[in-house]
Amino acid sequence: MKYNKIVLAGAVLLMITTISCSSDDDNNEDLGNWKERSVFDGNPRSNAISFTINNKGYMGTGYDGDDYLSDFWVYDIEGDFWAQKADFPGAPRSSAIGFNINDQGYLGIGYDGDFELSDFLEL
Question: Could you tell me if residue 28 is inside a domain?
Fold first, then answer.
């Protein structure tokens, strides 16, 4: 239990320190410094996980209102496109946690619609 709390605290700290917006000043008060980028090719969802490795953003799992999902995607910021990766091999889930340590992605815990999960996988 103590290990799960440490992992969760580390993941939250990592997410807080990596969230940022573009620094370009487009003088549009409605948009601020946000830029519209490529449209996500997968199903819209809530409670997905995400993390970054180098210049790529990874996103997967979640809940689309009907199903718990296990699909996984990568966003290439330089090419401005999404590509589907292999599905997450664990149970489909929402409310999981994902993070990067030393350029390796990790995903775990969450809820599968029936049970609170406690597994963790290295991607």
Answer: no
- The pLDDT score that the predictor gives to residue 118 is 97
How many domains does one find in the chain? 1
CA gap 84, 41 in Å, rounded: 8
Angle at CA of residue 13, ends 9 and 19, nearest 5°: 145
Q: Residue 97: pLDDT band by 50, 70, 90 thresholds? A: very high
In this structure, is residue 27 part of a structural domain?
no
For 10, the domain range is: 2-21+37-122
* CATH number of 86's domain: 2.120.10.80
pTM for this structure? Answer: 0.71
Mean per-residue pLDDT for 68-85? 96
Q: Hey, is 103 helix, strand or coil?
A: coil
Chain center to CA of 109: 13
- State the Cα–Cα distance between residues 96 and 93, nearest whole angstrom: 7
Q: In the Cβ-directed half-sphere of 78, how many Cα atoms lie within 13 Å?
A: 3
Beta carbons within 10 angstroms of residue 75's beta carbon: 20
Has residue 30 been placed in a domain? no
